[in-house]
Amino acid sequence: MRIAIDVNGVLRDTIGKFTRVYESYLIENNLEIGENNMIVTGETDDFVYEMTTPITSLTLTDFFKFKDEEEYLKFMYEEFPMQIFGHAGSSENNTFNLLNDFYLDQRVENEIMIISEEVGKGKPATLFFLSKFGCLIEKIRFYSKTTKDSIWDDIDILLTSNPELLLNYPTEKIVIKFETEYNKTTDSKYTIRSLSELTDIFKQIKK
User: Is 92 in a helix, a strand, or coil?
Assistant: First the structure.
């Protein structure tokens, strides 16, 4: 079988790191993205950066205030991609020990792949993140909102926390939900809350 494991939410605490970077740079230090994408001291106008928690969906602009969509994208993918994607923590303290153990146990009979929704500078930052934690899996595939449907061509089973992928997938494929705050209300036949449960759930699927 071809098993894919999503980075965001499953392996990486992307939202947690996004929150800390937003709070540090835009709220505490009163910075903003100025002309030519340069980070500058916040101007004295009526706009105030603020955030609301908990984060209950992946539409981050519903919880983090930006002047417009363009500023959000610059923040995420041009100014702070390494801080957000590269230097984020893992979802669990032993995430990559569990991931590598699963890979070593399954790699003979199954093809294991990492997938991640990334654009722009998020790609090299994610490669840094995987390298930093010693990920042993060789095959890594990036996708975007426009190419996400094509990932199913190479996948039989997907472990993800992304509600969109949990709700929209080909009927002949299998998805496993990695439960997070933002997908608790999304139904899934298979659910885990830790990578330590992956081997057991995979055995159930194979029966």
Answer: coil
Contacts of 201 (CB under 8 A, 6+ apart): 176, 190, 192
> What is the model's pTM?
0.90
**CB neighbours of 66 closer than 8 A, spacing ≥ 6?**
49, 72, 75
Domain boundaries, the chain: 2-13+89-206, 14-86
157 in Cβ contact with 205 (< 8 Å): yes
Which architecture does CATH list for 2-13+89-206?
3-Layer(aba) Sandwich (3.40)
pLDDT, one tens digit for every residue, the chain (207 residues): 999 999 999 999 999 999 999 999 888 876 555 444 444 444 546 788 899 989 999 999 999 999 999 999 999 999 999 999 999 999 999 999 999 999 999 999 999 999 999 989 999 999 999 999 999 999 999 998 889 889 999 999 999 999 999 999 999 999 999 999 999 999 999 999 999 999 999 989 986
d(CA 161, CA 8): 7
Cα 142 vs. chain centroid, distance in angstroms? 11
End-to-end CA distance of the chain: 13
Report how far apart, in Å, the C-alpha atoms of 97 and of each of 77, 107, 147 are: 29, 15, 30
| One-letter identity of residue 124 | P
Tell me which DSSP letter residue 197 carries.
G
